[in-house]
Amino acid sequence: MESYEEGAARPDSFWRERAEGGSEDRGTWIRQFVAEAPDGRWAGTVTVLVERPEDGRTLFGDEVTEPQGDVVGVYVRPEARGSGLVDALLRAAVEWVWALEPPVARVRLFVHGPVLPKLPRSDK
Questions:
Q1: DSSP secondary structure letter of residue 9
Q2: Which residues, at least 6 apart from 46, have a Cβ–Cβ distance to it below 8 Å?
Q3: Least packed by Cβ within 10 Å: which of 12, 28, 53, 116?
Q4: Confidence of residue 102 (pLDDT cuts 50, 70, 90)
């Protein structure tokens, strides 16, 4: 839920602390899955939030009538891209969500993309 530039500006210590705190947070389950490179640096990460009706709030404005998972943070360092790492991280995250009790109804992927400029309308 932040831009690439914002995430890239954070030190590794921020991401380590975030992963260590990836547990229940005011009723919303949060987990962060991390892949580590051989040199100990983070190679990639996936963050999952689980919304439940009893939380009394939603993250993205829709009504939560049954538990649902939201994949909100996916990042793979450039040198690890194309290696299948993102597939492995997403698989681990989704398997964790599907194993929760009570069962989760759906898992959604949210993507924060660049803002594209408005193009002039063509009447052709």
A1: T
A2: 32, 33, 71, 73, 74, 86, 89, 90, 92, 93
A3: 116
A4: confident
The backbone torsions φ and ψ at residue 11, rounded to the nearest 5 degrees and listed phi first, read -75, 160
Q: Cα 4 vs. chain centroid, distance in angstroms?
A: 13
**What predicted TM-score, i.e. pTM, was given to this entire model?**
0.69
DSSP assigned state of 103: P
Q: Please provide the DSSP assignment of 63-90 as one string.
A: --SS-EEEEEEEEE-GGGTTTTHHHHHH
pLDDT, one tens digit per residue, over 85-98 is 999 999 999 999 99
- Confidence (pLDDT) at 57: 64
Query: Which residue from 106, 105, 109 is spatially nearest to 46, judged by alpha carbons?
Result: 109
C-alpha span between 82 and 55 (Å, rounded): 37
Q: Where are the beta strands (DSSP E) in the chain?
A: 29-36, 42-51, 68-76, 106-109
Cα–Cα distance measured from residue 7 to residue 15, given in angstroms and rounded to the nearest whole number: 9
Instruction: Please give the order of strands across the beta sheet that includes 68-76.
Output: 29-36, 42-51, 68-76, 106-109
